[in-house]
Amino acid sequence: MSKLLQLVAATELARYRWTVGWRALLASVGGFLIANLSVPMLVLFADEQRALTTYSATLFSFVVWLLVIMTVFSMSKTLHATLLVLGALLLMSAVVLLEQGGLLL
Amino acid sequence: MKASFRQSMTWLHTWTGLVVGWVLFFVFVTGTASYATQEITRWMQPERPMQSLLVPDAATQFDMAYQQLRSLPQSQQAQSWTVNLASDARNSSALSASWTAAPEPGERRGPTETLYMDTSSGQPIELAEPVRETAGGRALLRMHYALHYIPADTAILIVGLCTMLMLVAIVTGVVAHKKIIKDFFTYRQQKGLRSWLDAHNLISVSALPFYLMITYSGLLFFLYSYMPLAVPLTYGFEPENRDAYYSELMTQTGSGRVLGLGGGGGGPRQAQTEQGGRSGREGRSVRPLPLGQQAEQFTDLSALVAQTEELWGKGQIRSVTITPAARGQAAQLQITPAYADTIRRSRGAGTLSFNAQTAQAIAASPADVAAAEVFGSSMLGLHEGLFADSWLRWLYLVSGLLGCAMIATGLVLWTVKRRPKLAKTGEYEAGHQLVEKLNVATIAGLSFGLAAYFWANRLIPADLAGRQQWEIHSLFLAWGALALYSFSRPVFIAWRDSLSLAAAAFLLLPLLNALTTERHLGQTLWQQDWALASVDLVFILLGLMLGWAAVKVQRKLGQTKHNTATRNRTATVASAEVL
After folding, report:
1. Is the model more confident about B203 or about B423?
2. Is residue A37 part of a domain?
3. Quick check: A96 and B373 CB within 8 A?
4. A26 and chain B: CB distance < 8 Å anywhere?
5. At B278, is the secondary structure helix, strand, or coil?
6. Which residue in chain A has the smallest CA separation from B232?
7. Confidence of residue B567 (pLDDT cuts 50, 70, 90)
8. pLDDT at B579 over 50
9. Residue contact B171–A51, C-beta within 8 A
10. Is A56's Cβ below 8 Å from some Cβ in B?
11. Kindly report the CA angle at B569 between B568 and B574, in degrees rounded to 5?
12. How does pLDDT run across B127-164, given as a tens digit for each residue?
């Protein structure tokens, strides 16, 4: 019985650690990419002074990264955090790709 | 992650803080020292003259130095002459004349020679010994973002990542609080964990805006290295796309340079050449007249200096620079104020320029700068604090020290919180042990290493070649040795011994200074050279603080011993009863 409990506890702990590791990956790599992608996204709204908007957006991108990290670790379900980050990444890349292909606007 | 948002944020605060705490402690300690870069360098070059007691007006001082520059044979061919006046400006306690030679091919700047002068007689001061080479305050400044012994590019990325996590730790630390104001006014003494927590809160909240500013602005120094995809994703991945962005940005900001590339805030080399066209190499073919000969046709320069002093006030001129006519530009006289009139990081802000032949003022370029650039450069300016006068500089130092204390108390808090639980279950985890030992090795060890840096400056022979590198090696050798010791001893004993050693090293520094140089407290205080004296005084203060911590640990050790002794005695009594 106690052996079984130990095993359960061990897998529980292992599971928890994997979750933490996965979220750390989402927050660091995912957050980094989202922060970088936020720059061309914001520049989409700039009619003129593109360089200045790029600069300002880059200054702001650290805040974006910060928000992603905090969001990933505050969501109760890991699956939700995963979907959110991957979804945002997909959407943002699609917009940037379309824009660069001249298909948007 | 956890049940509530606040709990999740507390968890995130704990772990981000722990992971990067040690690197950040190093960054904060060396960074705080960098607010005194010039003062530290001056302390490390005891051969330099002390504060002049009698300071004549700017024009008189300028005349004394200018005459030397015109008459010395070795300064005639120079590319520029600079007179640093004894003034209210930082690091400006003595009058000096210096001349910079043309750069060797492949070098960016030519060598500069300096002559110190007596402000009362106008005669050059014969230094008893040549000024020693030293790594000085600049080495600490560089270490705080580029570390040491590893390639700078890698180091900058490591420090950047830690800075980003620091930002996370600060913001989550604030968010995790229920009542931040009340916590700020709370300190419960002698309560173990609670006291550590209260101390950590108090220290953290007291300079919170400073930490936020310093962390965020720290990221902006290497903006494009930390967000490497931002510009390529917008402008394209080719090098020419990048250059297009830089030149577009310089036009749109109106500042003519690009921030966020690290270093001195200069533009990318190629883009800047296109803009300014003054990088030099092409213009070398027409040799201008040497400065010494051109000076024969200069107007009465000291009248211009006097006029400027009237405008700015006494002691408000830091330096006067003279550059020869070259490449179609007239010979210039540039007068730099003691303090720039802006917090923005901008070279030559407030400098007045005159045509050296006609005495005509040369209008500065209009300062019509875009808001984003003002924000960015203000952040960098706030981070460096070069605009700060001496009072504000002290505030910067105190805030920096509080930052070190915030990190140190945070790291210790982590171990204190987990100690009782581990003691109860009897398993003293390897991970916990490692954190405890790394804490001693970093917090006490680096303090000792820093003291060793200054000891090395006084003990390594002043004329030894490559002594700068040995000063830096001494820092890391002393640190490493104490770290090894900390790892080999029980935690509390390691704390006590390392803290005591670091305290002694700092407390004895003024004594060592008195034994090895003529620039000790007895001299500096008597001559009212406050800047130089304050370095020794801060050493004493640091020594006292470290010593206080050592005494605290010793008391704790005494208590624990007492407790164990009592427990053992009761155990013996109990076993005797059983028998």
Report:
1. B203
2. yes
3. no
4. no
5. coil
6. A40
7. low
8. no
9. no
10. yes
11. 95
12. 878 888 899 999 999 999 999 999 999 999 999 999 99
Percent of all residues in chain B with a pLDDT value above 90, rounded to a whole number: 50
The last residue of a domain, from among B335, B362, B389: B362
Q: Which residues of A touch B226 (CB under 8 A)?
A: 62
What are the pLDDT digits (tens) for B441-475? 999 999 999 999 999 999 999 989 889 999 999 99
Q: What is the average per-residue pLDDT within B489-518?
A: 96
Assign B112 to helix, strand or coil.
Answer: strand
pLDDT of residue B512: 97
Q: Is B9 on the interface with A (CB under 8 A)?
A: yes
Main-chain dihedrals φ then ψ at residue B80, nearest 5 degrees: -160, 155
Q: Which residues of B touch A66 (CB under 8 A)?
A: 164, 167-168, 171
Query: Can you say whether the dihedral through the CA atoms of B38, B42, B43, B44 is positive or negative?
Result: positive
Report if residue B19 sits inside a domain: no
Beta-sheet pairing, B332-337 with B317-323: antiparallel
Residues in B touching A70 (Cβ below 8 Å): 9, 12, 168, 171-172, 175
Average pLDDT value over all residues in chain B: 86
Which residue out of B10, B217, B234 would a mutagenesis test of the A interface target, given it has the greatest number of A Cβ atoms within 10 Å?
A: B234
Q: What's the total number of domains in chain B?
A: 2
Chain A contact for B216, CB < 8 A? yes
Q: Are B389 and B358 in contact (CB under 8 A)?
A: no
B469 with B354, same domain: the answer is: no
pLDDT in tens, B347-381: 667 788 899 888 888 876 656 788 898 899 999 99
* Residue in B with minimal Cα distance to A57: B230
B11-52 confidence digits (pLDDT tens): 999 999 999 999 999 999 999 999 999 999 999 999 988 877
CB contact under 8 A, B227 and A61: yes
How many domains does one find in chain A? 1
User: Cβ(B97)–Cβ(B114) under 8 Å?
Assistant: yes
Contact check, Cβ <8 Å, B164/A75: no
Written as six digits, the tokens of B28 are: 């904060």
Distance CA B563, CA B145 (A): 45
CB contact under 8 A, B228 and A39: no
Q: Identify all chain A residues contacting B234, using CB atoms and an 8 Å cutoff.
A: 39-40, 43, 50, 54
Q: What is the mean pLDDT of residues B560-568?
A: 66
pLDDT beyond 60 at B435 = yes
Note whether A54 contacts B223, CB cutoff 8 Å. no
Query: Residue B322 falls within a domain, yes or no?
Result: yes
**Among the partner residues A54, A57, A73, nearest to B1 by beta-carbon distance:** A73
Q: What mean pLDDT is predicted for residues B183-197? A: 76
| Inter-chain touch B245–A51, beta carbons under 8 Å | yes
Identify the domain containing residue B432 by its residue range: 428-579
Predicted pLDDT of residue B351: 84
Query: In a 3-state reduction of DSSP, which class is residue B337?
Result: strand
Cβ(A23)–Cβ(B1) below 8 Å: yes
DSSP notation for B530-569:
HHHHHHHHHHHHHHHHHHHHHHHHHHHHHHHHHHHHHHHH
- B317, B335, B362: which is the final residue of a domain? B362
Q: Do A49 and B8 touch (CB under 8 A)?
A: no
Q: Give, for B433, the enclosing helix (H) or strand (E).
A: helix B430-439
Residue A9 near chain B (CB below 8 Å): no
Inter-chain residue contact B219 with A43, CB threshold 8 Å: no
Of A54, A57, A65, the CB nearest to B245: A54
Strand runs (DSSP E) across B356-460, as ranges? 361-362
pLDDT band at B122 (very low <50, low <70, confident <90, very high): confident
